[in-house]
């Protein structure tokens, strides 16, 4: 009985020991799990704090982006209005310049036609004057009182005429011929003067047309530069330089 009793006590002790070990192992696992839970909670809290901070930063950036978007849209609207105004001003200036060019071109063409008519008239008058001069020379050579005025080659010999001859040549026929000569010379001089004035007027009009073409090109370059500067300013890049103005070709007179 004693041995059995001692044997039963040994079994109970082993069982108790096993239970105690299991309890200690469970407590250790419980402690480990509790420590792991606390660590996970701390890590999650840190992650949550970081996520909240990042969300605050993103919200601030979103607000700034929205504000910049509103400002950019407003700037774009202003640029579009300015561009539309510039286009309208440029269109009016272009229409005015084109009208002036057409008007000047028509005047130049008219003056060229006048010059052509004057040149033709001058040639005809020169031919007619030459014919009339030959007729006058023929009449004067046929006149015994006037034959000394011209040489055989047809040149005038007014300087060689003596005072006595001048008194003889003061008849009505000679005066009439001299008057006709003076009138033809005067008409010829007036025609030449009109031709010179017409050529000067054509040159002046062509100069004005060239100035108008330069103004048109300058207006194009100004509008082009302002438009590009506005676009590049809105996009944040450097503005481009406008192309160089080209001189319009001059028409020959």
Low-confidence stretches: 1-7, 158-164, 237-253
The SSE string, one letter per element, is HHH
Biggest sheet features: none
Shape estimate: rod-shaped
Name its key features.
disordered C terminus, 253 residues, mainly alpha
3D architecture notes:
The model is unreliable at about 1-5, about 160-165 and about 235-253 (pLDDT under 50). This protein has three helices and no strands. It is mainly alpha-helical and about 250 residues long. Helices cover about 85% and strands about 0% of the residues.
Topology:
Elements: H1 2-142, H2 163-168, H3 172-235
Structure, briefly:
By secondary structure, this protein is an all-alpha fold.
